[in-house]
Amino acid sequence: MPGSMLALAIGSVLSRRLSLALTVLTMALSVALFLSVERLRIAARDSFDGTISGVDVLVGARGGELGLLLYTVFQIGDAAPSMRWSSFEDLAEDDRVEWSVPISLGDSHRGYRVVATTSGFFDHVRTGRDRPLRFAASSGERIDDVGVVVGAQVARDLNYGLGALIEIQHGLASAGDRSHQDSPLPVTGILEPTGTPIDYSVFVSVRAFEALHNGWRGSVPSETALDVRTVDLADPAFTPSLITAVYVGMKSKRRIFQLVEDVEDYGPEPLTAVLPGVTLSQLWVLVGSAEQALQLLAILIVVVALAGQITLLLATLDLRRREIAIYRALGAQPGLIGGLLVLEALVIGLIAAAVGLLFAIVGTALAGSVLGSVLKLDLGATLLTPSQALALAAFIGVSAASGVPAGLLAYRTSLQDGMRARF
Amino acid sequence: MVIETEDLQFVRRGGGFSLTLPSFSMAAGEAMAVLGSSGSGKSTLLDLIGGVLRPTAGRLSLFGQDATGLSSTALDRLRGDRMGVIFQEHNLLPFATVRQNVALGVRFSAARRARLTGPVDAEIERLLTLMGLEPAAVLHRHASDLSVGQRQRVAAARALLGAPDLIIADEPTSALDEGNQARFMALLNAARQETGAALLFVTHDPRLVEGFDQVLRLDEPAQSHGEDD
Question: In terms of residue numbers, what domain contains B205?
Answer without folding.
Answer: 31-54+82-223
